[in-house]
# Entry
Amino acid sequence: MNKLLYYIVYTWMYLHALLPFSVLYVLSDILYCLVYKVAGYRLKVVRNNLKNSFPDKTKEELLVIEKRFYHHFCDYFVETLKLLHISDKEMRKRMQFENVEQIKDLMKDGNSVLMFLGHYCNWEWIPSITLDFQGKDKDKILGQIYRPLKNKAFDELFLKIRSRFGSLGIPKNETLRAIVKLRKEKKQVLIGFMSDQIPSVFNIHYWSTFLNQDSAIFTGVERIAKQTGFSVIYLDMEKVKRGHYKATVKLITDKAQAEPEFYITETYIRSMERTILRDPAYWLWTHKRWKWNRKDVELVQQHK
# Structure
């Protein structure tokens, strides 16, 4: 049944991926009406998140962000479908990376790099950074941490999409084990972490103010960086225009083990916040980012 479901969904998605972007964006506009105006998909969550994140904005200003978010959210969906049928040349034109040479410099002496990412713009296009690694650089392992889906058919399908440009998919629960294995094999890695969402309750070790709210912050990247000595960067994304993005590599540290506790994590969350504030419409507001508060977390952790 899983295989059958996989082939049905894959065929449906692939047929859509064959369509030119101009047609896909017409479909996106139709999807916007269905998702936002008819179904109101997670509308209560979006409105609550926006209201708490921007307490100084008027209802009219928040409504503008809300509508622009849903338009972009539907664009994100059709753009992700397009990954099943898009040329390297087309992707290079639409997803541009700046300052990639800094990553290459950090990896010159056998070092590896951890890359902070966020659910901003179209994060599914970020693995195309592999196209900027040519010649000997192709020997380097470029990986991304992902959360496996419960449905095996959909999990296999999305893993296929996300590995379109040759990156290695690493299940979230196997992150450290995979990194240790790659180190033993003396492989250099560039691994991306989506770190802007809420950690699981037993992995909450740090709190900070994020978008005007007391927020539990994911610290896994910092812990791995301190254990391994890997360099840490942040990828700052911007939407240039519809279907075109720019991502700029920004160094957080190349001396992770010498940094004060939570410096790396705090630097990331401030960077992510600046990215969102530049244009809030392109962040994933449908996620229940603030479902935990400190008191509840302390109670749960005490009774572990």
About this structure: Residues 2-302 form one domain. The chain has a mean pLDDT of 93. The longest strand covers residues 231-241.
